[in-house]
Amino acid sequence: MPSDAETREAGRWNFRPKTPLAQNPLFQWPPNPRAIFKWYAAFWLEISTTTLCLVIALLAYFAILPGLSEMQVLAWGWVFKVWLANLVPQVICAGTLHYWLIMRKGQGDKTKYDPRDQADNNGTFTFGNQVHDNMFWHIASGITLWTGAQVLVFWGMANGYAPTLLFPGNPLWFLTFFVLIPIWSSFHFYWVHRLLHWPPLYKIAHSLHHRNVNVGPWSGISMHPIEHLLFYTNFAIHFVVPSHPLHVLFHGYVQSTHPVFSHSGFEELVIKDKRQAKLGVFFHQLHHRYFECNYGTVEMPWDRWFGSYHDGSACATDETRARKKQMYT
């Protein structure tokens, strides 16, 4: 039987998944090969945001992305193609989820974390509307600076400044790098995110993203341009580690399309009372509710190692609030 504290904690949510929340078993000791396989199988051998990002990357690479020879010289023509390769899937994913979950309310509040609706007539948001605010910053700043980072990498590859990799030359590394990109992204995100919670940076930049306590699909990369500039510095890895343009596309979708789903506000997609796919990440939803916790992702245990881990329990909420009070007094 849950304690009174756990009952109160559960009552703060419309839906709360089983706690304590799980993290990547790759970093647990002693090693558990079965658990590790099941963890990565859920990302790579099932329908997931990771496999979706890979499919989008393949479609964009073969249908839109120009060859490296064309990208040797910066020109609006091919830059626009890269921007389009980012814009179209982002609008489809965020727009479809927003329509189903929020406009149509296709699954009602089933697996919805926060019981509240998206904010309207609220002066906190640009245009006084949470959705319009999120769409503007998501597209105008997010997709633009995401594209700019990729353009720099593609231009570097085309001119020999960034090391390139071809599948026939090293197929094992070519495939392995797809698995390592989300881990690198998680590592980079944690440290940039901690920096963004430094009060001066938080005030001028990161607070824009944290307007969204009750997140939605368009909240994913709704950020201040300063935050986007820091967020997309993770593409610098391609100037160090040999990679292929397909890796760069996949990296971008992991970095930018995955947050559309992780910020959906719903644990799962439900159609005709049947759970179809995993959507949200409660681990990060807790960060938007309680702020000074879960700066990273479940992919790497930085929060557990540095004492900022919220596992969804009432005890963790008390610890987070105590830590926040100490930080701001």
From TrEMBL:
InterPro entries: Fatty_acid_hydroxylase, Sterol_Desaturase_Related. The chain crosses the membrane at residues 39-63, 83-102, 135-157, 172-192. It comes from the Bacteria. Keywords: Membrane, Transmembrane, Transmembrane helix. Residues 178-308 form the Fatty acid hydroxylase domain. Coiled coil: none annotated. It is found in: Membrane. Its main location: membrane. PANTHER family: STEROL DESATURASE (PTHR11863). This is Fatty acid hydroxylase domain-containing protein.
